[in-house]
Design a protein that fits this description.
Layout lengths: L2 H19 L1 H15 L9 H5 L3 H19 L23 H16 L10 H5 L4 H16 L7 H15 L8 E2 L12 H4 L15 H14 L22 H13 L6 E5 L2 E4 L2 E8 L3 E6 L2 E4 H7 L8 E5 L4 H6 L13 E5 L7 H16 L1
Antiparallel strand pairs: 1-2, 2-3, 3-4, 4-5, 5-6, 7-8
Helix pairs in contact: 2-7, 4-5, 11-12
Keywords: Cytoplasm, Cytoskeleton
Organism: Limulus polyphemus
Subcellular location: Cytoplasm, Cytoskeleton
């Protein structure tokens, strides 16, 4: 198989993985738009097809603006509500000029209402379905804006609000991190002195006492003496009652089994909070089946988040030709630099910095030119 075919296959895998990761977000947004506009049109399968003519998103923006103006008039918000008037071509067909006009009007409205430019798609990105992820992120930001004016937001926005309230109230307590397992609630340890007033004194056997008399006294005391608490053991260590694992813990464990080779890299801190590769993140269950991770200001599926931090993901691996590096030149100065086509192939793992492969290649060429000169 040629390197071009390998590269095309890797690109196809990346696109397929990105599409799979958008399914929970599309499902959440489709349900939200249908509920807000009181329609039953959008599904995960036809998400982009239902929106590409721009009619539904224009209607959604007009509804949010109307709610915002009513909120302002009733004194329920102190925010300035911009007045944006635009025409919506309701009979626009997909990939037509009118569809592009609707998309552009929607984008201008979003800019006036404070949607960040980083999550705004291009009109062609919606019409030609080339920017599905940006469309999803833009609509999710729109859901956050709609929540300010009394419109029920998408499920992910509700989870964000719950996490923010939990953080602001200080209810998130730092606890000892451990491997994913059912949590334990510590039981206060009791000492024998605490129970000494209620426990009878054990008779001391002397030489004058006969074994029969001591045994009879012990049997009488056993009928009246209370049994020691179950939390005490002979070594004085309290037992820790095991609590039942939540559905979230079970799903996280299942995903960790499927994705990770070393499950010790993910640890449970508290309910809904985990340490993954040394980074504390919030994990939530969306609609009872999608395990989502709070990443910055957005969301990601747990499968994709784990694969991004581990080499086991095939989309992280690229096969390229190994070129002589600066370290190679200094480690073996007697060996001349070679640019022959039969150079050694190796696996290159995507790094976590922002420089692209083209920038790295340009830097390598600059070093190569400096050495040649």
């Amino acid at each position: 198989m040629s390197k071009q075919l390998i590269w095309d296959d890797v690109q196809l895998q990346i696109a397929r993985r990105q599409e799979e990761n958008l399914i929970p977000l599309k499902e959440d947004l489709a349900e939200w738009i249908d509920r807000t506009l009181n329609i039953d049109i959008i599904t995960v399968e036809n998400f982009m097809n239902a929106l590409d003519n721009g009619v539904i998103i224009c209607k959604l923006s007009k509804l949010i603006q109307k709610k915002a103006e009513n909120y302002r008039q009733e004194g329920l918000t102190s925010e300035v509500v911009p007045t944006v008037s635009f025409k919506c071509w309701e009979n626009a067909r997909s990939a037509s000029f009118f569809a592009r006009e609707n998309a552009e009007n929607f984008l201008n409205w979003c800019r006036r209402f404070g949607v960040h430019e980083a999550v705004l798609f291009e009109s062609e990105g919606l019409v030609l379905h080339t920017q599905p992820r940006t469309v999803v992120l833009c609509l999710l930001e729109l859901g956050r804006i709609a929540a300010k004016f009394g419109i029920e937001p998408p499920g992910l926005v509700k989870l964000e609000k719950e996490i923010d309230e939990r953080e602001s109230s200080g209810s998130t307590l730092a606890s000892d991190s451990g491997s994913i397992s059912p949590s334990y609630s510590p039981v206060p340890m009791s000492t024998t002195e605490e129970f000494s007033p209620s426990l009878p004194q054990t008779p001391v056997c002397t030489r004058a006492d006969s074994p029969i008399s001591v045994a009879s006294v012990a049997s009488q005391d056993s009928t009246t003496a209370p049994s020691p608490p179950s939390t005490l053991q002979f070594n004085g260590t309290p037992t820790k009652p095991r609590t039942k694992s939540s559905d979230l813990d079970k799903k996280v464990m299942q995903i960790a089994d499927d994705v990770l080779e070393d499950k010790t890299q993910i640890k449970r801190i508290s309910e809904g909070r985990y340490s993954i590769a040394g980074k504390n993140v919030f994990v939530r269950l969306l609609k009872g089946r999608h395990v989502m991770v709070r990443v910055g200001g957005g969301w990601d599926t747990l499968e994709h988040f784990l694969s991004r931090h581990h080499v086991s993901d095939p989309c992280q691996v690229k096969i390229i030709d190994r070129k002589p590096s600066w370290s190679d030149f200094h480690s073996s100065p007697s060996t001349p630099l070679s640019n022959s086509s039969d150079s050694e192939s190796f696996l290159h793992i995507r790094a976590k910095y922002r420089n692209s492969l083209s920038n790295i290649s340009a830097s390598s060429k600059y070093k190569q030119k400096s050495l040649d000169s």
